[in-house]
């Protein structure tokens, strides 16, 4: 990593931090050690080195709450470059529709970040996941809202009765245009709940 102040923690751990959008030690004071431990490629040895390096600079990981349930977080840095690259190489019959839906999502709030998750474009707000494309379907757009707060959002577009997720489907460009306002409202309502 070019301009970071991370200690030598090995390539997999360094790549894990970089992929999650972390570029310097100070950023690690805003997350718990448990959250960093979740990163693929981050081992106990690398964690120990990071902990000791923070301590030597009078810093520490954010304190977690006792019994706190760990939530999977999105990258705090938008990885638009990675999503652009992914979509350029994507062989999918609905690529234009995917781009249209992506544009709607990003237009709802300037703090929505994007990354590639589950081999598909994924969007989060302040690190809290909002929605991810399911690209296995090729005849329609399939969106997975996988934030526990989505169960509190009421909309006829949301389908399924899962414990902490809902699905949404869009048939084609005409359907996307017709449902745009309701889709934006779902995202805005979900963001309000995250901000509470």
What can you see in these coordinates?
The chain has about 200 residues and is an alpha+beta fold. It has two domains: about 1-70, 5' to 3' exonuclease, C-terminal subdomain (DNA polymerase, domain 1, Orthogonal Bundle); about 80-195, Alpha-Beta Complex (Aspartate Aminotransferase, domain 1). The protein has six helices and five strands. It has helices at about 10-20, 35, 45-55, 80-90, 95-110, 175-195; strands spanning about 110-115, 120-125, 130-135, 140-145, 165-170. The chain has a five-stranded antiparallel beta sheet, covered by helices on one side. Helix 5 runs parallel beside helix 6. It is elongated and about 55 Å long. The two termini are about 35 Å apart. The model has no long low-confidence stretch (mean pLDDT about 85).
